[in-house]
Amino acid sequence: MTAVSITRAGIVSCLGLGLKTNAERLLAGNSGIKESKEKGREGYFGAVSFTNHELKTALGFSLDSVISRTALLGLAAAKEAWNEMPQDENLKCAFINASTVGGMDLTETYFSNLHANKQANPSLVAMHDLGAVTNFIAANITSFDYINTISTACSSSANAIMIGAQLINAGMFDRVLVGGTDALCNFTYQGFKSLMVLDNDWCKPFDVSRKGLNLGEGSAYFVYENEKSRKSSGNDVLANRSGWANANDAFHNTGTSPDGIGAQLAISKALMQADLSPSEIDYINAHGTATPNNDLSEYNAMNTVFQKSLPIFSSTKAFTGHTLAASGAIEAVFSLIALNKQVAFVNLNVEEVVDDCKAISRETKFKHIANVLSNSFGFGGNCTSLIFSEA
Amino acid sequence: MDLREELKQHLIEQLNLEGIKPSDIQNDQALFGDGLGLDSIDALEIIVILDNEYGIALASPEQGKEIFHSIDSLAAFIEKNR
Amino acid sequence: MIAMYIHHATSISAQGFFNALLLEESLKKKTSFLANEPDYKALIPPMMVRRMAKITRMALMCALSIDKDAGNPNWSGILVATGLGNLQDTDKFLTSIIESKEGLLSPTSFTQSSHNTVSGNIALILKNHNYNMTHVQQAFSFENTLIDARLQLLDKKEQLLVGACDEYLPLLSDIANQFHLNTARIEAFGEGASFFNVSTKKAPVGILAVLVKHHVASIELEIDVLLDQNNISRDTCFVLATSALSEIYVNSNMNVNDYCGRYFTNSAFALHLAVSHLMKQKKHTSALIVNTDHQHNLGLILVGLE
């Protein structure tokens, strides 16, 4: 098992700012999804309850600075994770970020201004590309030796987490900040609406009557440190990232195959990589977006791999909504909390479960958790599974 | 223009069926699967055509499965509902 | 540095469609850099090409050519770089949001606007179920993809399909003008795609080193250190320079921007040129691609004859 040590984490979601608040609400079964009655944005969303102004103030930027919400959310969580770790010039540090939205929240304003007034402020698009958002976050954390951004739709930050660990294992870096961020924006809302995959009510992951997803936003990061780095920082190990795999469904641009081939491959390869048998997984944090398509594919994939040893599982997307690129990292941090608190989180808002499956978590369940599997599946058939193990 | 011809034009345009002429699409030919080879994204595009061009709203792609079988079934649905 | 060999390369750029490792034609410098496109229907299924914007068409044409040349192997990984992603589809969907008053929006351009549309479409057409990644880091997206390729080969993957693509949109020039970017640089905005068959199996040309360095004080020093570490003397090394937005490195043998224009992933086209050059002559036994960006960061790709 080529485990990589995780020492610190940070998170922002509709459950709140920081690990403590997110953990409290997860344990209490208290969702952060709210109904929006805003014209042109009707529905249920997992919106972070801080405005851009509040985020800029908290992060020390002037109110008139032009910064994408994706970058602000990202920086808030990255700061909690990095927490001013003292720089050590003998250590090589990398930052692997993930996003799909990037600065689109500002770009769409640029476009509508351009359309209405025939002119628009170009600084609105300076942070459009994903690399620019990553550079912004990096510049406000520390001086990294290597910076990269992964973008594979909803599996983006899970892939950033995977690659970050490979960089440490390869001996290329001592300390790697990994994770992802995405903000709610009209482009995304209109896009998912045009695909008819949104639920106009609170989403119901793995329920037979589920209609679709609720969009959310947020960010999460954690820090990998090898032994040399931990000697310098003095940080304790929170958990280990012990397994990972990425596979492709190769079925459709946006839909998933009924049998969940890509998911099956990702889960089984992650298990092999971690040198664990299916029965050694104590809890699965599913991707569980609550679309009719995803949940069936994922359920079928889990059953195929786990057969009679399907452990307790839940989707936490009825807590947070689908946070797109950030979902892999947010749910990875939830997996760390699960290990820390020895708990399987409740799958909220489910009545009649797909296949009447008894393994779904209908309540917050305290139990011994040694290994957690976390799934993230995105457009383009991109499937990533991560395994986290107790330290 | 005949509704069926109009529908074929809409499909060719909205679905970017490059190199296909209306005369290449038979009225009773299966549009999905092995026929013309349309997929689930095309189904959503047809829902957009029904809404924007004919004022008929479908709540979900599942509703469309029977209706979208062929040009004939689409035309019949429009004639009944507009 | 794990051995990474290049078995085949394809590129589409202002120079046309090159489907060979060795470029027989001698390139001409250009003054405008829109891609000189091939007939895509020769390789991309019509029902898929109909939805694809230029960036996806260029990339798929290159990737499928590599796949055909390699005999349709079961690639253990498909890795793609793009600096700006699918701009045309993004523009189209944003415009449709603004222009539609009420009523439904067409989903196609949204589904094609994800940054991993290219890597996803390659896997879809090839029915490839393996590792699939997309890197989006401005001028160093391609260098990062090569670093990822190396990581995957270290992880015992064997044969990788690796490439890069970016497309031009007139809006980019408008925005650059608003930012008062040097006019000559704006006029040199280009687009293209380049893909490679990379594996640990030996081939005439291998990638010796790939690195990205931040806030570099002296480019010359970084080059000297890298060549020194690899026991390469400058006079046997063919130096190619690229840049998307900034001043280009001056002490090169070839300014790649003059041939394909400026776009974030043009170091991939430079790699194709570098490999071809090494195979065509005897003086240089190695080649170095020097890629500079507008924030004093530096990308270096070093290739050598086996």
Please identify, by name, the CATH architecture of the largest domain in chain A.
3-Layer(aba) Sandwich
Order of helices and strands of chain B: HHHH
Q: Regions of chain B with pLDDT < 50 over 5+ consecutive residues?
A: none
Our count of helices of chain A gives 12
- How does the overall form of chain B come out from the CA principal axes? globular
Report the sheet-strand fraction of chain A. 15-25%
- Given the C-alpha coordinates, what overall shape of chain A results? globular
The name CATH uses for the topology of chain B is Non-ribosomal Peptide Synthetase Peptidyl Carrier Protein, Chain A
| Rounded Rg of chain A | 20 Å
> How many E strands of chain A?
16
Find the CATH superfamily of chain B.
ACP-like
Descriptive account of the structure:
The complex is a heterotrimer of chains A (391), B (82) and C (306). Chain A has helices spanning 19-28, 52-59, 69-82, 104-117, 130-139, 156-169, 186-194, 227-233, 261-274, 292-306, 317-320, 327-341, and strands at residues 4-13, 16-17, 34-36, 43-46, 93-98, 146-150, 175-182, 215-216, 218-225, 239-248, 283-286, 312-315, 343-344, 365-366, 371-378, 382-390. By secondary structure, chain A is an alpha/beta fold. In chain A, strands 1, 2, 5, 6, 7, 9, 10, 11, 12, 15 and 16 form an 11-stranded mixed sheet that branches. In chain A, helix 6 crosses helix 12. Chain A is globular and about 60 Å long. The two termini of chain A are 13 Å apart. The model of chain A has no long low-confidence stretch (mean pLDDT 96). By secondary structure, chain B is an all-alpha fold. Chain B has a single domain, classed as ACP-like (Non-ribosomal Peptide Synthetase Peptidyl Carrier Protein, Chain A), CATH 1.10.1200. Chain B contains 4 helices and no strands. Chain B is globular. Chain C has 306 residues and is α/β, with parallel strands linked by helices. Chain C has 2 domains: 4-199, Thiolase/Chalcone synthase (Peroxisomal Thiolase, Chain A, domain 1, 3-Layer(aba) Sandwich), CATH 3.40.47; 205-305, Peroxisomal Thiolase, Chain A, domain 1, CATH 3.40.47.10. Chain C has helices at 46-49, 54-69, 87-99, 108-111, 117-126, 141-154, 170-178, 183-187, 219-229, 257-260, 266-280, and strands spanning 4-13, 16-18, 77-81, 131-135, 159-166, 192-199, 205-213, 237-243, 254-255, 286-292, 298-305. In chain C, strands 1, 2, 3, 4, 5, 6, 7, 8, 9, 10 and 11 form an 11-stranded mixed sheet that branches. In chain C, a hairpin with a 5-residue loop joins strand 10 and strand 11 (298-305). The radius of gyration of chain C is 19 Å and the shape is globular. The two termini of chain C are 14 Å apart. Chains A and C meet through helix 4, helix 5, strand 6, helix 6 and helix 7 of A and helix 3, helix 5, strand 4 and helix 6 of C.
